[in-house]
Backbone:
């Protein structure tokens, strides 16, 4: 294989990687923890936080803060898993590309 063909293949692969990453960034991921729901985009921006107020008391603010952290981290875990699943085929053997 000549160098020109290798460069074309690398450009094609790079384009596919960027399209896959862009598609992931457009997705909405939902994280839940008890009565807290967090929606985030694939680029890890919070879109919505929903608290089911029927299930809480006024003195549970600290618990709510902890639940929000858990729900956000749950959504981030889903994003990272999707990135790993979909981008892993491009990054096998390479670290630090994403």
Residues:
């Amino acid at each position: 294989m000549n160098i020109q063909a290798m460069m074309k293949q690398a450009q094609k692969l790079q384009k596919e990687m960027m399209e896959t990453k862009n598609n992931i960034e457009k997705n909405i991921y939902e994280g839940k923890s008890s009565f807290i729901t967090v929606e985030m985009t694939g680029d890890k921006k919070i879109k919505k936080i929903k608290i089911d107020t029927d299930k809480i008391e006024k003195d549970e603010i600290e618990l709510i803060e902890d639940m929000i952290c858990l729900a956000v981290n749950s959504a981030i875990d889903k994003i990272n898993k999707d990135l790993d699943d979909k981008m892993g085929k491009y990054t096998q053997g390479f670290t630090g590309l994403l």
Notes: The first strand starts at residue 28 and ends at 33. The mean pLDDT is 83. Residues 29 and 78 are 7 Å apart (CA to CA).
